[in-house]
Amino acid sequence: MQNRNFNQSSGNRPIHIPQDPQHITPEQVQQLLNQLSPADRKRVNNVLQDKTAVQKLLSTPQAQALMKKLGGGN
Prior knowledge:
By secondary structure, this protein is mostly helical. The protein has 2 domains: 1-35, no CATH class; 38-74, no CATH class. It is 51% helix and 8% strand. The chain contains 4 helices and 2 strands. Strands 1-2 form a two-stranded antiparallel ribbon.
């Protein structure tokens, strides 16, 4: 797994991302969630349980670019 730092200036811990993000298993997703602080894990779960929030998140340019990259697009 790679070690990538996200927003260290705000005090977030590094998260280990699987080498092949195109083939992430449910177990790896759970491992990623387990690396989050309890507060961050709760925020992620709250967003994922809110259909409107998920749609809003997925419609951002950053999410679109990430989905394109993970899907193998350019």
